[in-house]
């Protein structure tokens, strides 16, 4: 029997699901439907991410099963909409990237960017840099005492140009590289040692999982749902958390600790590959 789905944000999991004959995307209820007094239909499964706007609330109340992308989101739905817990399942965002040995990728990237491959790389990237804490990232890395490191920020041309303008008065050439429209962001994750995301946003930052999968140590804020996959040491109270500077300094200087964290992060993230997450979703749908 064919089942219908709808979603807040289209993900790779949803794209893969829609390739199956047994899954159909429910057509959006249009203005024309309203004019013709056509009754609004709702999907069997609703994939939720982000804010609880009016359409999301309608989809949640009428779906047979809700798939949230974090336990934080699930808890919010239960609290605000009084939905029974059994109706909601949590499936984290999936990772869909080719893994290569970080050491080899780092050599290539460092050669390309003309930086010393011995340096530790602290990385930042995001679709919305301001909301994801780019200025907090810069403030933290600029205060680091550890000298043998380089910070990299990668994003689209418009955002990078804006950052360059804001930093024009500061001498950052020896400590920070700004990359615009970099062709292969995945190789920057693999080349990096630390991914620092002092984000102000709440919705699960999927780049946290990608960084963990790429064998990075990761820091992000407690307000973001991605805190669920990292440990307490790596959790920032707020985007401007001053303790992060001291934690980063200590970690960058301790080869054994950073190696262990990288290894642990990759082990955790390997459980959230596209293949494994898709298998979980398929099993859920089959049992509805």
Shape type: elongated
Secondary structural class: alpha/beta
Sheet with the most strands, sense and barrel status: 6 strands, parallel
Mean pLDDT over the residues: 93
Describe the structure.
This protein is 40% helix and 17% strand. It is of the alpha/beta class. Helix 1 links the parallel strand 1 (3-7) and strand 2 (23-25). The longest helix has 15 residues, at 255-269. The model has no long low-confidence stretch (mean pLDDT 93).
In summary, what is this structure?
40% of the residues lie in helices and 17% in strands. The chain is α/β, with parallel strands linked by helices and 288 residues long.
Write the layout of secondary structure elements.
Layout: E1 3-7, H1 12-17, E2 23-25, H2 31-35, E3 45-48, H3 54-62, E4 65-68, H4 71-81, E5 88-90, H5 102-113, E6 120-125, H6 134-142, E7 149-155, H7 157-166, E8 176-180, H8 185-191, E9 194-197, H9 206-213, E10 217-221, E11 235-236, H10 243-253, H11 255-269, H12 274-286
Parallel strand pairs: 1-2, 1-3, 3-4, 4-5, 6-7, 6-9, 7-8, 9-10, 10-11
Helix pairs in contact: 5-8, 9-11
Task: Please describe the structure with a list of short key phrases separated by commas or semicolons.
288 residues; alpha/beta; 6-stranded parallel beta sheet; 5-stranded parallel beta sheet
